[in-house]
Amino acid sequence: QVRFVASGGGLVQPGGSLKLSCEVSGIVLEMSKMAWFRQAPGKQRELVATVTWNGIPNYSVPVNGRFTISRDGVKNTLSLEMNSLQPEDTAVYYCNYDPPAMLDGVELWGPGTQVTVSS
């Protein structure tokens, strides 16, 4: 079973920056695409950014140009550098594979890390 532990969230003012980290453990799929997702209060979880096994990134429109995703295949870690943060970026951020890992038909998610953008 795979486990995802995200960290690095916090409270930041509009225009500020944060860097999120994710440690992947258990059964690690080194060739799988990895991703950051986020879920704002009252909204569905959405895909933020993905990165392939060889480092090719892709971003959702709202974060393109502001966020940078990267991965370390040796350490099994995933990062998300977030700049020019805005209140609409407030959400719980999760890391996972894309598509998300599943066990017995149920998606596996870690606890995520809270990002709050507010003055």
Description:
There is one protein chain. This protein has no helices and 12 strands. The protein has strands spanning 2-7, 10-12, 18-26, 34-39, 46-51, 57-59, 67-72, 77-82, 91-97, 102-103, 106-107, 113-117. It is globular and about 40 Å long. Strands 2-12-9-4-5-6 form a 6-stranded mixed β-sheet, with no helix packed on it. A 4-stranded antiparallel β-sheet has the order 1-3-8-7, with no helix packed on it. The model has no long low-confidence stretch (mean pLDDT 94). With 119 residues, it is an all-beta fold.
Set out the fold topology.
Layout: E1 2-7, E2 10-12, E3 18-26, E4 34-39, E5 46-51, E6 57-59, E7 67-72, E8 77-82, E9 91-97, E10 102-103, E11 106-107, E12 113-117
Parallel strand pairs: 2-12
Antiparallel strand pairs: 1-3, 3-8, 4-5, 4-9, 5-6, 7-8, 9-12, 10-11
Which terms would index this structure?
mainly beta; 6-stranded mixed sheet; 4-stranded antiparallel sheet
Short summary:
The protein has no helices and 12 strands. With 119 residues, it is an all-beta fold. The strands form 3 sheets. A 6-stranded mixed sheet has the order 2-12-9-4-5-6, with no helix packed on it. Strands 1-3-8-7 form a 4-stranded antiparallel sheet, with no helix packed on it. A two-stranded antiparallel ribbon has the order 10-11.
